[in-house]
């Protein structure tokens, strides 16, 4: 063996070997050192979630169902058929009386001007940034990376520029504003920061996730576009991330996995959530009838990549064996492909609160229990669909309930236009205090509530 190695090194013109023969022990030591250096160089950098903050709108901005309908009638924008349709969908949406709309939408008629949209975004983002930074006594100049995502409102200067200007960030802060990426943009922002933290050592990143409601109300008659008026509500979240060693002891979570899925090459998926003008030129976001089917397909694709990373081998083997049986011994009596038990991989689930039907479908497809989707349902009930920030309201709910313990794993599942399904897995690395103030603290004792079921007449 020693002779072979020496000959190999001589062949690569390392003439020093022939002059000073190296023992096999030395060669093994050098090899081990090289492997250690390579592993150190390419090791995965930790991404710590230090903390996050969700926007809590004032009660004066609440939109109970009766107020919503009364406002539609008083604004004289919709005909009676459109009002009745929105009322019917709202009753079945799973959204309660506490969800909020920005002040401009409360005006009669609603004021969807650029100025009011800018006012909404500044109110939400400024509030959550101030809350998060002050909670940890962080100087804005210590932020190295700033990423914002807002799908339907992309002003110039950008939303990140707005925050940089208001809080006085450094001139060399690395800022990015993501637009047009739908409700899953929050996870995309986390993915971007994860990649940036691989390159920029000892850095702190701030992610801002929200959707602007003010400029995006639809005033036409197409039912698939009226759906967005009912589901989307005011909200936002600020997330503080770091790869610094000194932040590990105060961080809440550590990022374990992040898997992104994009089905944009499929026409049905691409058009399932689509912003466009109707025949009369009124712009809205259309939610197609195929949306649930597309979401299920995207989720299957996503977990086919995520599963091997998180599931125990016993679950992977059962799944693989069921696939083999289906292909070899397929029969009508067979139950189909085995659905892995994801409760063996995760203690908590945060499913995007896109609507009651979405939560129900994911719960059924993953064979979860009712309590596994409780955070999602309660978030939808109290805050509505706040787009990319909804997952953080759900995690806030779990924390306020005192359910997240050190060592627990949380699976965040986000869906968005494109069509996209993105997953993030976090591991809790601290003992969390449920009494610390968050967006649920004021009335967490009132939840969960029983959401009334509405039967078709």
UniProtKB/TrEMBL annotation:
- Keyword Cytoplasm assigned to the entry: answer is no
Key word Nucleotidyltransferase present: no
Q: So, what pathway does this thing act in? A: Lipid metabolism; fatty acid biosynthesis
EC class, as a word, reads transferase
Keywords from the named record: Acyltransferase, Membrane, Transferase, Transmembrane, Transmembrane helix
Enumerate the spans annotated as FAE domain. Answer: 41-327
Q: Which GO BP terms apply?
A: fatty acid biosynthetic process
Family statement: Belongs to the thiolase-like superfamily. Chalcone/stilbene synthases family.
Annotated protein name in UniProt? 3-ketoacyl-CoA synthase
Question: What does the organism's lineage look like at the top?
Answer: Eukaryota, Viridiplantae, Streptophyta, Embryophyta, Tracheophyta
Gene it is expressed from: KCS7_1
């Amino acid at each position: 063996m020693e002779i072979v190695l020496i000959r190999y090194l001589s062949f690569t013109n390392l003439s020093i070997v022939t002059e000073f023969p190296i023992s096999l022990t030395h060669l093994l030591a050098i090899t081990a050192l090289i492997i250690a250096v390579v592993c150190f160089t390419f090791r995965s950098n930790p991404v710590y979630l230090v903390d996050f903050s969700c926007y809590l709108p004032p009660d004066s901005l609440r939109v109970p169902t009766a107020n919503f309908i009364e406002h539609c009638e008083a604004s004289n924008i919709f005909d009676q058929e459109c009002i009745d349709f929105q009322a019917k969908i709202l009753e079945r949406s799973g959204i309660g009386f506490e969800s909020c709309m920005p002040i401009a939408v409360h005006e009669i008629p609603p004021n969807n001007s650029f100025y009011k949209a800018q006012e909404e975004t500044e109110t939400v983002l400024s509030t959550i940034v101030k809350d998060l930074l002050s909670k940890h006594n962080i100087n804005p100049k210590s932020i190295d990376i700033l990423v914002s995502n807002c799908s339907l409102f992309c002003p110039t200067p950008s939303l990140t520029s707005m925050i940089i200007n208001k809080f006085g960030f450094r001139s060399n802060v690395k800022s990015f504003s993501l637009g047009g990426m739908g409700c899953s943009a929050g996870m995309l922002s986390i993915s971007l920061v994860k990649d940036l933290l691989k390159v920029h050592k000892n850095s702190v990143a701030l992610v801002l996730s929200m959707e602007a409601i003010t400029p995006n109300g639809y005033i036409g008659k197409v039912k698939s576009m009226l759906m967005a008026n009912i589901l989307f509500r005011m909200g936002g979240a600020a997330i503080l991330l770091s790869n610094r060693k000194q932040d590990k002891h105060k961080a809440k979570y550590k990022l374990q996995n992040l898997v992104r899925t994009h089905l944009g090459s499929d026409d049905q998926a691409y058009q399932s959530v689509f912003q466009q003008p109707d025949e009369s030129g009124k712009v809205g976001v259309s939610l197609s009838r195929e949306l649930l089917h597309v979401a299920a397909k995207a989720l299957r694709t996503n977990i086919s990549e995520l599963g091997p990373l998180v599931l125990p081998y016993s679950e992977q083997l059962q799944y693989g064996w069921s696939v083999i049986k289906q292909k070899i011994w397929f029969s009508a009596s067979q139950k189909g492909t085995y659905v892995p038990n994801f409760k063996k991989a995760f203690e908590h689930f945060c499913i995007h609160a896109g609507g009651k039907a979405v939560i129900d479908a994911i719960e059924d497809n993953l064979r979860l229990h009712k309590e596994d989707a409780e955070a999602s349902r309660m978030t939808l009930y109290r805050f509505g669909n706040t787009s990319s920030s909804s997952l953080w309201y759900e995690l806030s709910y779990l924390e306020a309930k005192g359910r997240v313990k050190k060592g627990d794993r949380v699976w965040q599942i986000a869906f968005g236009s494109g069509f996209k399904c993105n997953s993030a897995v976090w591991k809790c690395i601290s003992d969390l205090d449920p009494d610390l103030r968050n967006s649920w603290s004021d009335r967490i004792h009132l939840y969960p509530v029983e959401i009334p079921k509405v039967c078709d007449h």
